[in-house]
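User: ok so my PI wants both of these folded by tonight, can you help

Assistant: No problem, let's get them done. Here's the first:
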Amino acid sequence: MKFRLFQKIAFGVSLLASASLADIFDMNGLYRLQYGPNLNMILSGNTPIVWGQWMNQGTATASFNWIEPLRDLPYGNFLDPDAAFLRFSMDMEVSPFYGGFRLGIGGRPFKMNPQVEARFIYEHYTYFNSNVEMTLSSNLKNGSIADSWNADWISDRVYTSDAAVDFMQNFAFFFDLEYAMGSDGLLGLGVHFTLVDISTQFEGKSFDYRRNIPVFSRDFIIDLVAYAYIPFSEHWALACHLNQYNTGSSRSSDGSYLKEPLSYTIGLLGPSLRWGDTSPNKLTLMGGFWMREKERFYSGKVSQQFLVHLQYQRNFGFGIRPVPKE
């Protein structure tokens, strides 16, 4: 009993140490980017007000984006609100539970505002002895999904012999509609569809730490997102984020569930501080609430559904002299 208590305390401390490290809110990765090469980092994380249900998230991400304009060639200039471009991206991401990379290609074909962007992203992650077997269908044999879909159950097993070093690869398709306002403000809507492929010994029953939801080894995730960044002074803005995750289902030959469809919604709101011209910085603190769509998948208290999210983002310039626009 004492060992379990010590293990949970140490586990919580490690997460809080990375709580300023899950890029829930990254403004579609385009905040203050320039035409041509771009390098930026994001330290991001969140924690519940009351421990027990929500699994803390913490990540450090380094991203490279090449923005190739489709009209003029204004390399070194910040993106225009109505920019048309191709986008090539590479991200390296690490957290206490997994690490990996993402490769993306896409673009905005039309010179207009609001903008439409489509992207394809390949993701590959390695679980750091952190993949745990989840209950994916509620029945008398397996018990309830709520029994394992919580932070207490996962933290008791991660990094132990009950966990495994596994591999995940995802194939994601992003479709976003974004309206840019003056002084870096924007409103956005998105639909993200991800095909999940996990190699695991747990009969396909795994946990996606990046999206905080149980998944099958062959699954799909539909992510609906709405976000806003509304500046009200030179350095301050209001950041808003609403997101819903939905996974697929799977049935056996007799029609019984191997995996039930799962979903939850999260909403966040808070201030954002921005500074710097050549190397823009942004520090965002948001509070919010999350909930699962089906009550039988949740066994916690209302107080355990409140969250705090902290994120720091910095862009690094390549010293390219801006090309005069025609």
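One down. Here's the second:
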Amino acid sequence: MSNGLSRLKALNEKLDKKINSKQNLFDNDFETTNTIPTSMVEKTNTTDVKSNYKEDRTLNMESLRKLFSELKINEKCPDFDNVFKYKAMNLAGIGLRDDDFGELRIGKYIQIIAISYDSIGEEKKKAKNISLGYYGKGETLDIEKKYKIIEFILRWRYEKGLQSIDNYIHLLDKLKALPKSSN
């Protein structure tokens, strides 16, 4: 009986060691070098954005065009204007959330992924992921390239948001043109 108990204790110790070693592997899941501490970055005053809207948007588009070529996205999407036909743009292998901003995910491949929707019949839509740029494993990515990839995604999302704002401004203008009473 004591022999069985000692074997059980030995197995329990082995299991505890394995659990600890797996937890250590999980703790190093993200590479935290070159991470931008977003808590130290001040938020932009929205009043400043409104006053510089056109100039800021022009500069954003110029930067996007440059990055479009530098990151060779033009090889997958030859017409720059078509890059805004996608519904969303994501980044695989690099964190963009506030808590993991700029972190490379170890062992993951870096890709810019565009998302579009194909219609399947009258009401159903199917999401379609398209790789616009593949940059290899995160560990081999040079910091300047990483910065440019993140910048492209953020600038694309910024422009896409501005296009949505333009659409709502247009719709509000149309609403103003409608008669306000039924007489």
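Confidence is low (pLDDT under 50) at residues 24-33. Residues 143-177 form the longest helix (35 residues). Good luck tonight!
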